[in-house]
Description:
Blueprint: E1 7-11, E2 15-17, E3 25-26, E4 30-34, E5 37-42, E6 54-57, E7 62-65, E8 67-72, E9 79-80, E10 85-86, H1 88-93, E11 97-102, H2 115-131, E12 138-140, H3 152-160, E13 165-169, H4 177-189, E14 193-196, H5 211-217, E15 221-222, H6 234-243, E16 247-251, H7 256-268, E17 275-278, H8 291-303, H9 307-313, H10 316-322, E18 337-342, H11 351-356, E19 361-368, E20 371-374, E21 388-389
Parallel strand pairs: 1-6, 2-7, 8-11, 11-12, 13-14, 15-16, 16-17
Antiparallel strand pairs: 1-4, 2-3, 4-5, 6-21, 7-18, 9-10, 18-19, 19-20
The chain binds zinc ion (ZN).
Amino acid sequence: MTKPTGKLVIKNIGLLLSGKLEQPILDGDCLVAIDGLISAFGHEANLDTENADTLIDAGGVALSPGLIDSHVHPVVGDYAPRQQQLHWIDSTLNGGVTTMISAGEVHMPGRPKDIVGLKAMAIASQRWYENFRPSGVKVLAGAPVIEHGMVEQDFKELADAGVTLLGEIGLGSVKDGPTAAKMVQWARKYGIQSTIHTGGPSIPGSGLIDKDIVLEADTDVIGHVNGGHSALPDDQIVCLCESCQRSLEIVHNGNERAALLTLNTARELEQLERIILGTDGPAGSGVQPLGILRMIAMLSGLGNIPAETAFCFATGNTSRMRKLDTGLIEEGYCADFVLMDQAQHSPGKDLLESVGQGNLPGVGMTIIDGVVRTLRSRNTPPAKRLPALLG
Length: 391
Ligand SMILES: [Zn+2]
């Protein structure tokens, strides 16, 4: 990876979405980034916009932090063996996603399940996505699926080698609460975040993880709390929301009714900061290039959540929970953005109202580390207005 250099100026922003639940909309029409990091934002008149290396006229469209998919199953490069799919990451970038977080590289053909093998693959996966970002997308991978027989030293070795995530607990042989809890604590001790496969089996070979196992394992993320695919019964989902403070991850591949139950319960608890979004693709349901945008529109439209708040679920909430340097409009954060506008001929008076009525936005541009990666999306409906790259 070469370090990004130069000055990026984005003018005429019509709506500045922050990623922050406490203030989802910022005052301002302009943003400046230097060497790939946000350096200033606000009103153009108050900012130093001279000598830009890259100048963008947003044309009045919205700018949001690039979307984060908190739950993907990458394998290698931009290829997904599960559905024999090429370029799924590039397609997802066209859906506004600039960062993806692996919940385990489980679709690797011949995936090793012995301990030395699974550690080696996790370390290699972390490296190959660190060294090669498909279409520029940040893929945080190298998430081992834990197996019986692992000892504390294994987690230390993984952490020392750069592994920061565990794959979904339940996809390997560890499916019981006591073993999961012990290994999650070892992982946490060495700075490795954990997640768990909540709900019924996803495909033949995967297993049921119910609320008792989830609560006992105490992972950092309650992975697909709405199931992937099959959700737990309603009372168990409510119990998970009420009985702990861990992140509530809602995924596209799950049950939409259970997603709304989770959202409504979190809202009653006044804990919307726990909601984060993922697709859980590639998987048995395929790949969803627009999955995160579809979740935002669905939760906003059916869950009666303001669209600007729903965008936080896929940006700032995930950033804060996972301690990322992207996903918030804040000085020093990565200049990772999606520019978008209301889709042509969609109802509503503007982007937020249109998304609030359940419609997808039209993506006009994506930017990662201050570098323009895509112009008008090939996958979203066309936007009313488009940003222009002036030079
Ligand atoms: Zn799962």
